[in-house]
Amino acid sequence: MSQITAGNTTISLVRGDITEQDTDVVVNAANTSLLGGGGVDGAIHKAGGPQILEECRQIRAAQGGCKTGEAVMTTAGQMKASKVVHTVGPVWAGGSKGEYILLERAYDNSLNLVRKAKLKTVAFPSISTGAYRFPTEQAALVALGTMVRFARKHEGALDEIRLVLFSDTDLSVYRKALDEVQQTMMG
Ligand code: AR6
User: Which of 19, 35, 40 to mutate to test the pocket of ligand 1 (most atoms within 8 A of CB)?
Assistant: First the structure.
């Protein structure tokens, strides 16, 4: 399964590069400093150009970075998307340190920023499953479950929520999670 519909929103899985997505918004797997890093964060700043870091610095000056589970929005610079939502997922520490709820909040707060900006389509990477080591199987269920709940709660707010997976392995893990979500939440 590669896509489902919930509350008029298509939730889809693709293999690809987050920086090349044609959605209104792309989401960055940032850190609390908002000053850049490796992985998705490095790729987004490289593709979008220095304007993104400049806006991140302004946000830092105004509110002192971004806490884990929260999200902020900047321009997308030279990327096709018009905005970047920077969110900070939790660092995996075994699962009993609030990681699940913090990951859910990262997705939910990002989706709410997109909705409040009246933008219609958004692409997410697999937040926290790289440098932050959250197990992909569990992260996929959190990501997809949060998206389905959001789409139902805010019916018609977004047209598409896309998850962009960087490897075939991650894509197949997310496909399996989507099957599970389909059976447990949509059945
Ligand atoms: N497009 C889509 N997915 C990607 C891309 C890309 N261009 N590049 C990597 N991935 P990570 P995290 C995948 O480490 O775990 C940074 O240094 C990657 O294979 O980017 O939330 C930040 O500054 C993995 O599956 O994010 C933070 O310090 C997933 O995206 C920290 O890493 C997330 O990997 C955040 O760590």
Answer: 40
Q: How far is the CA of 92 from the centre of ligand 1 (A)?
A: 14
Q: Is residue 12 part of a domain?
A: yes
Answer yes or no: is 34 within a domain. yes
Asked if residue 186 belongs to a domain, the reply is no
6 CA to middle of ligand 1, Å? Answer: 27
Q: Is the pTM of this model over 0.85?
A: yes
Cα(187) to centroid of ligand 1, in Å? 32
- For residues 71 and 110, what is the distance between their CA atoms, to the nearest angstrom? 6
User: Is residue 92 predicted with pLDDT exceeding 80?
Assistant: yes
Nearest C-alpha to atom 24 of ligand 1 is from which residue? 130
Tokens of residue 184, six digits = 């447990």
- Within 10 A of 112 (CB to CB), how many other CB atoms are there? 16
In sequence order, the 6+-apart residues with CB closer than 8 A to the CB of 45 are 36, 52, 53
In a domain, 78, yes or no: yes
168 is catalytic: no
Instruction: Give the domain range for residue 125.
Output: 2-175
Total structural domains within the chain: 1
Please tell me the predicted confidence (pLDDT) of residue 8: 94
